[in-house]
Amino acid sequence: xxxxxxxxxxxxxxxxxxxxxxxxxxxxxxxxxxxxxxxxxxxxxxxxxxxxxxxxxxxxxxxxxxxxxxxxxxxxxxxxxxxxxxxxxxxxxxxxxxxxxxxxxxxxxxxxxxxxxxxxxxxxxxxxxxxxxxxxxxxxxxxxxxxxxxxxxxxxxxxxxxxxxxxxxxxxxxxxxxxxxxxxxxxxxxxxxxxxxxxxxxxxxxxxxxxxxxxxxxxxxxxxxxxxxxxxxxxxxxxxxxxxxxxxxxxxxxxxxxxxxxxxxxxxxxxxxxxxxxxxxxxxxxxxxxxxxxxxxxxxxxxxxxxxxxxxxxxxxxxxxxxxxxxxxxxxxxxxxxxxxxxxxxxxxxxxxxxxxxxxxxxxxxxxxxxxxxxxxxxxxxxxxxxxxxxxxxxxxxxxxxxxxxxxxxxxxxxxxxxxxxxxxxxxxxxxxxxxxxxxxxxxxxxxxxxxxxxxxxxxxxxxxxxxxxxxxxxxxxxxxxxxxxxxxxxxxxxxxxxxxxxxxxxxxxxxxxxxxxxxxxxxxxxxxxxxxxxxxxxxxxxxxxxxxxxxxxxxxxxxxxxxxxxxxxxxxxxxxxxxxxxxxxxxxxxxxxxxxxxxxxxxxxxxxxxxxxxxxxxxxxxxx
Length: 625
Prior knowledge:
single chain; alpha/beta; Rossmann fold; 4 domains; six-stranded mixed sheet; 20 helices; 44% helix; globular
């Protein structure tokens, strides 16, 4: 395979904090790699170093000459006065620079460079750039190309940034949390796009279904070192557990040896100078190994929620709209005790507005939310992150409460609670301004839970949280003795936490589904299949009716013999091509293919997609004659 990127002995630290040390790995053509690590251990820093946006202490980052690289930042930024289409040309990539050179030469009187630029424009297919930009923006559901950047939501801005990366046709894409702020429909579209293409990929994401279905290799940064796993996320989980068990066995064995060595070191201290130096050095190495503890935060936390009565809340004939956009229309619902509800839907359908109406932040146009007297909300909002950066982490939480009630006379201190959510004693006494974005989100979550609520309302809690923290939060919510409402685009998270869904379909249409997200998707695919079959069955009858009702309509010209043969051939070929594509997709998602076979099949599926698109367009042309 062709090597695209090589990282050699890379080290990065901030003062005394070493993020990673002497890590080495490479990315070859067709490889799709997921990067996993705890918040604050250097994931985003590593991506920024590779992208050239940040310095490193030592080591080397080497790209293949002429490689086209796209970088999707976690928080993309554009000048606010740009339109959506202009933002797609606000890039430093080679194609955009070439278009700018062409426009500069055309605007000047000196056309000496024009011939060379025209040849380069042809080679780079720069003439198709705007058409391709509009096509990808359309696929990402961005249709108002003249809308200004400052008017876009977080999800829309992320989609514009994603389009900006994809239209340059990169050979290697670096992505930092690509699914953050994307709704489920867009997440699944991106998942399919990346799975089918032969693009090489290095990605940080907390979306575990996304990792499992897209990535063929996982890299983990743990304790400043790098570990590689040749498989998808499921394979990584299995092999990581084996590594931890082996490491813990070694630590236990080192502890037993240490006891013997400690006894030897303490004997006859006055003769220490006569002891063999290698024994002393070996003792200190054993001590270092014996102190290693592999703690992934799996601590039992059985929190007693404050008393909750039988009445939770009732929505009574609620109406809400913004202009022509309907959010709720005559909505009524009685929330049950200990219910765990997940809210899903596309961006802009009203999920956050629903939450804000429940919390009293937004007033309904009509109707009301009647909340029970015993309810104590714990509200985690998307924009609620606000701390004094000069405070210490432990003081932020201690200002809320000194301990959390576990019931039966038991309690947990602030320090123990923070440790459960993966804040080490050293990190607890660190200042807030030193925390990463994900660590601040985790701290915000702790301030919500420390208030001992009996009804948790969580609006996009998974954004910016690492996978290990998500495991801790999922376990907490599964054992939480209260009510929960979660708005999230994280399918894996929803499957593990909620027992039923409220699906926002747009324009006030809601679906109350008794099950988790995967069960809903299976049901929806089944319903869509029934609808397609019903439509297909009705089409021949409709054609006959139209012919009877409108016999005077001017007939289209008939197909020529050659065109008719071509039309019939395409109709026969398309199902075969689609079947081959489906079989290849199944093979690619199996996780059992070798790298060489994976590369070959990925190339073939890319060819099939182009072939199906071309033949479909020709079929449509011929069918209109």
